[in-house]
Amino acid sequence: MNLSNLKPAAGSTKTRKRIGRGPGSGLGGTSTRGHKGAKARSGYKNKIGFEGGQMPMQRRLPKFGFKNINRVEYKAINLSTLQKLTEDKNLSKIGIEELKAAGFISKSQLVKILAKGELTAKVDVEAHAFSKSAETAITAAGGTATKL
Questions:
Q1: 82 three-class SS
Q2: What 3-state DSSP class applies to 75?
Q3: Is 17 helix (H, G, I), strand (E, B) or coil?
Q4: pLDDT more than 90, % of the chain
Q5: How far apart are CA 61 and CA 129, in angstroms?
C-alpha cells in the first residue's frame, strides 16, 4: 500500500451534479429549474410571506389584541419555596439577594410572594409585591412582610 493507491471507502463519496452542461448529461436545458416562473430566473429571492401575488396570510387574517406597555411582570415565589429556603439555609430574613443567591430569580426580575404551600417558620420577607393571603400567612407565622 502507498499514497498512489489510496481510495475513499465504497459509498462514502458522491459525484456532484453538473447542471446545465448539455442534453447528454440529462441535466441540461432547464437545468432542473422547471419551466418559466420566478424560480426559473436568475436573481430570484424568496421574500418571507410572499405567496406568488396571492394575498398573503398575514394580510388575510384580521388584527387583534394589544400589548399593554404599562404591564409590570413579577416572578412568582410561593410560600412553600420560602419554607424550603429557611429550612435548607437556616435563614431568618429572606430578601431579593437571598433569592438571587439561591437561583430563583435573575438580577432584574421583580418578585411577588404568593400563598401556595405552608409557612411555619418565623421569617422576615422583603419583596416587591405580596398577595393578601401570603401577607397574612407570613404575619400569622410571626414574621413580617416588607414591600420594596
A1: helix
A2: strand
A3: coil
A4: 89
A5: 39
Q: Judge if pTM exceeds 0.70.
A: no
Q: In one letter, which amino acid is 51?
A: E
DSSP labels for 22-64? -GGGTS-TTTTS-SSSGGGSTT----TT-BTTBPPHHHHSPP-
| Cβ density class 60-86: b for 16+ within 10 Å, e for less | eeeeeeeeeeeeeeeeebbbebbbebb
Residue 65 confidence class, pLDDT cut points 50, 70, 90: very high
pLDDT band at 11 (very low <50, low <70, confident <90, very high): very high
Q: What are the cell numbers at 103?
A: 437561583
Q: Which three cell numbers stand for residue 3?
A: 499514497
Q: Mean of the pLDDT values across residues 95-102?
A: 93
3-state secondary structure of 128: coil
93 bridge partner residues = 124
Written as one letter, the residue type at 107 is K
From residue 85, alpha-carbon distances to 106, 135, 136 in Å are: 17, 17, 19
C-alpha span between 88 and 94 (Å, rounded):
13
